[in-house]
Records
---
Amino acid sequence: MLEIKAPGLATTVQDLGRPGYYHLGIPLSGAMDQLALTAANLLVGNDANAAGLEAVFMGPEIRFTENATVAVCGADLPPKLDGEPQPIWTSFAVKAGQTLSFDYLKQGARAYIAVTGGIDVPVRLGSRSTYALGALGGHEGRPLQAGDTLKLGQGRPAAAGRSVPEALRRGPTGSPVELRMLPGLYWHRITEAAGQQFFADTWKVANEADRIGYRFKGGAPLEFVPREQPFGAGSDPSNIVDACYPYGSIQVPGGTEPIVLHRDAVSGGGYMMVGTVISADMDLIGQLQPNTPVRFVEVDMAAALDARHERAAILDQIRQHLS
Amino acid sequence: MAKEILSPLPGTFYRKPAPDQPPFKNEGDAVAEGDVVGLVEVMKSFHEVKAQVSGTIQAFLVEDEDAVMAGQPLASLD
């Protein structure tokens, strides 16, 4: 069992998510950095979809009441076992009675803590992921609190000291970080100059960035092509007749600050979207800190699919390395 | 080594509880362990920054409303 001594900022139980209910308004949820959770699970001998903990910006403090193998992947949030530093992206043994805590965040935003057997919370609609807005899944449908206890599932023995090679530890690189996107159905609503400016500007991650969406600020406001708003659309030029919001879609309320919808997003609404961040780059968004400079880069569908295959190939290499 | 108060989180640092109120602490003020010296805003919420050590504030090392990183020194103590 895991005893939560201090919860961190907004630590939640997450697996790879709850797809299949978005049309009913229930989002995907699951780890924002799916590759990092998968790697952490594989390091401790779990299936990729086992539930782990997603810690954002600040780590929790956890006392173990049983022996376990643990791995922390994703952000460089340095783990400590009874105060002794432990490596990230590497499995390590924890003995009953020991306490896992974390040093200050060095890089990235979200660390994934996997434990042999996975976190055994009830499966809701096919997933153990926490959707806090809807009080669904995870531990009582909410982020962890001090005093919570979490049961572990039946684990397979896993060796300590196994490590994901550095070349396979995918995360945001360079500055500005480049997020690739496909322009979408509503691209025609903005002027050609506004479209060029959108890609030319360097944006910064705003403080309003969480599991629901990531807001960006600092670029030029969008200039819209004048039109008489259609029946059902609001009066602001950024309004559309309500439509589906895909995972990764980039809405721009008021034409000022783009918001990329992430794993706990709403499924529809009346803001125009300039396009959608490609699936391969959604993991990277989950690792962005506030104030990180970002550029949006236009790609076509072929490039998006290539990127998807490249990401899948990294996961395959991690699997092969750890098998 | 000089004592410092570190930011627990990345975000925006505020020295005042609200824009129309005085700062939590000024340079020269005494702080005890656990005293609130500022706020960090991130993910649509505000988190108190508490002194991890006691002492007298020598200087604030960041401005009000500056962007800060986790582990960044916010103030130095005597």
---
Amino acid sequence: MNLQGPLWRFTGVRPAAWVFFAFLYVPILVLVALSFNSGQSATLWQGFSLKWYSVVANDAEILRAAKNSLIVATLATLISTCLATLAALGMHGPRFRGQGAIQGVLGLPLLVPDIVCAVAILMFFAFIGLKLSLLTILIAHIVFCTPFAYLPIRARLQGMDPRLLEAAADLYASPWRAFWRISFPLLLPGILSGAMLAFIISMDDFVITYFVAGAGSTTLPIYIFSSIRMGISPKINAISTIMLLISIAFVALSYYIGQRKR
Amino acid sequence: MSTPRQLAARRQLLRRLGLITPSMLVLAVFLVAPLAIMLLVSFLQPGDYGGVKWGQYSAEAYINFLYERDLDDSLVFNTDYLGIFQRSLGLAVMTTLGCLLIGFPTALYLALQSEKKRNLLLFLVTVPFWTNLLVRVYAWILLLRNGGLIDSGLGLIGLGDGALGILYSDAAVMIGLLYTFLPFMVLPIYTSLEKLDWRLVEAAFDLGANRFQALKRIILPLALPGMLAGTTLVFIPALGNYIIPELLGGGKALMIGNLVQLQFGSAHNWPLGSALAFALFSLVLLALLFNGLRQRRSTEVRI
């Protein structure tokens, strides 16, 4: 339907949208521009240079934090996506008693505010005597990544034609074979977007990680947080810009996968 | 006697439960159990150097909420914590209102664009979802600090004096919250506007309604489910936010999240921290319950 024409121009709607987009993007653009500053100041422009990027690339502490983040995010993504795929397959089909409760537990990490989740898990680790380390970070990340991975997979399953699996069963395919030949290829876009969501959520998490990280298991967000607390610097501008670019590359990738699906 | 059909159904159910078990185990052990322990800890006595004294139950943590113990053990009414809860609620409500005020026209603008332009704009709305919150908050520090970009910009046109004084105040926290949660409001409202049958609006125009009437009588009521969903999505994380008040409030404009963190950090009072965290979680559940009831009522009305 054609929504053009003067009657459809609601007063104030366009300026509000412009304010919205400016509000959203001006801070980000300013940050990116300032990361190319040649001077020592984080906010005073003194000329173009890539100096701070080489400082970041040669900083052992940042590289170690980035390595920790990547290790945790990769493992958390793999494990939570597997758990979520299995759960989504199990939840698919006729309703059974107690399914609502299971659904509730699966969505629980989305409801609990992250600070609450953080202190609860921290106390749990303290009481069972588990020393804080990369392992405790990984466990916490698996917990809150699982629902993010679960939702797209479940949505994809709900859109699947049940007759395909019935046909496979009629043709004597075992459930195992039917899964790999039919469900899995159809689910793959859902699994991929679930995994990407889990990866980004894990890479970006600060609050929960901050509580359950032991000494020496600094992740990138923890590094950024402690540097911001010590004061702003062009180094933080550069590393922030790198993280922004990685995120945007991810969105573009998921957008591309989404487009190909159609 | 079970028929073969019943046996097959039972086998099928067992297989499905088997698929669900691994994730349930992980979530039960590492989330449900910790939350239950947190509730228990809130009724215990604090240990001397962090931790708790097991087996010594008391409601002290909850009493601490409202009262302070004086030297002679008498209870004195104390509004410090209540004040922080009130500030958190106030900031979360203001953030939600602000998001509605900017979010609704933006969503309407998006819904009225051609499909190609709309996809691009939607893409732009979702980008911040994927970018690190710390990075975005840091960008605001660059803008808001004294001698920062807004300050020096105002100085250039002769308005500022190099002491903007916004950073580390409630105003900065408010800007940060609004900035972070605006997309959470725009997307659900857009989703309900996208499903809207625009012929209804056209019919209203044909029947002589002006734009304001069409907006008030048709578009706003039909966008209500999206606005409610957006309100929940903004209010809940805004209420429990830790990062924004910590970095933009500078430890002065505390919210509930910071108060909880303090009990596990320097204050070493785990029971009080647990009680505060539990109170925050209850507020969130209340907000969800309220939203659920509202939604049920609104669907009933439509049927």
